[in-house]
Predict the structure.
Amino acid sequence: MSTGSESIGISVRRPRDTSAMTSAALESCSDERLAKEAAGGSRTHFDQVVRRYSDLLYRVCYHMTNSNYEAEEATQEAFLKAFRFIDGFDCSKPLRPWLVRIAVNTVRSRFRARSRRVEEVVISHDLPGGGNGPESATAAKIDLERALKTLGRTQREVVVLRGIEEFTFPEIGEVLGMPEATARTIFHRAKKALESELS
């Protein structure tokens, strides 16, 4: 007569690597699922949101401030705000624009608090000022920096989101709280202004 686990039909197995499974499962989670779980108090799911979007938020903050330090501080502050208010987030809406809107508003408030104007961004995608070779690229970047000084804050923000991060105009509208048509108009006017400055 058999004894032990065989007598009651239990198969004894080694424990599986649950940490690896958890990591893989989190990476495959949709934004909606991550947001719902984070809103319910799951720090693990919110940490995955941070891992998924930290590079994006840092780039947005950097191109608005042109400062590594300010970008790092603003990114951290933006995620703290997101964690604080994610329980009020509408999980039926895209998470990315909501996070970027928090980052943009964080940069704005940080500079208002210090009575400093947002520093100009340096961009090249889908905008005038391109060239071939490192020397022409450097010269174009310098010229573009100067031209960007003529743009207002909202124009610069639209240019950063469209020209660097390749947001769609509906996403830009959601981030900055404006209609899609307004975002398109602002971008094209900013582009024409840059072309005029660089011509």
